């Protein structure tokens, strides 16, 4: 084994892992795991099923799922704990996977940055394509796997059952959603572009507010369930994210960027498919996909055609190797394989359509 070749690749993987840990664990993943634990343990199951359940009105559940990313500043990994939380709470596979894709795909900050840096047309195309893809992915996943949904929902209800305790009936019904909302506010504040001091003050106030709500309105059994669900999701997902991020860094080291640039000159099937595959494998932190497309792959200089640029913007933020590994673990090999295939093929198709329109 040639150490001169292997060691730089390992160093690239380690660098990607350290960058991920420093940039995302404290501000993104920790709040996301607590949100997921609250969804799985404290929200009434009926509230989740109202918007994400198998029998919810399709116009309602897919409208909510496909546009949820506009308020969540999350990447392909941060969305996973929340996806696991609603999945364990009994959400239908269709709305849940629509939420899984749309969360990072139409992050409002990323879409605005795309429009400002790469052009208004590409930004608008990203929004339209991402929402359409989320709905299509959800409908196809539901059509293929909905037969097992009722069994899954019953299992989720048993797995997530909250111990009956005194005092729950006297608690106002808005408290659990408010608690989850405060945790979401922590995530949004922590990932905002505010200066360190005001950001720390806002996050601190929100954390204290969530702690007060938890201590004031929830029983000991519910607290134990909340922390238990949070820890269960953390130990199930976090190690896989670390391994996947390290491997993705190694893949990025060996990626022949100059050769790939030559492939992306046209908006044909090959260019859009390769762009989708690269986006599906590489880990792209939120907002980083814009300079990757604009500078690394040469869209801003005209080296990259509009079609593969859009395909990369669709597949890249919503999926990564760590993301795929965790999805495989959460929903099983068959569902994960169909979901991953849909993302890659639909990103390719949307890129080709946009390439024809933009040319």
SSE topology:
Blueprint: H1 3-41, H2 45-52, H3 58-67, H4 79-88, H5 93-105, H6 108-118, H7 120-145, H8 149-159, H9 175-190, H10 196-217, H11 220-254, H12 257-263, H13 269-281, H14 289-296, H15 306-318, H16 321-331, H17 333-358
Helix pairs in contact: 1-4, 1-9, 1-11, 3-5, 3-7, 4-5, 5-7, 5-15, 6-7, 6-14, 7-15, 7-17, 9-10, 11-16, 13-15, 13-17, 14-15, 15-17, 16-17
Family: Belongs to the UPF0718 family.
Transmembrane segments: 20-43, 59-84, 96-115, 127-145, 174-193, 200-217, 237-255, 267-284, 336-357
Protein name: Permease
What does this protein look like?
This protein has one domain. It is mainly α and 359 residues long. The chain is 78% helix and 0% strand. Helix 14 packs antiparallel against helix 15. The longest helix has 39 residues, at 3-41. The protein has helices at 3-41, 45-52, 58-67, 79-88, 93-105, 108-118, 120-145, 149-159, 175-190, 196-217, 220-254, 257-263, 269-281, 289-296, 306-318, 321-331, 333-358. The protein starts with a helix and ends with a helix. Pfam families: ArsP_1. This is Permease. Its main location: membrane. It is found in: Cell membrane. It is a multi-pass membrane protein.
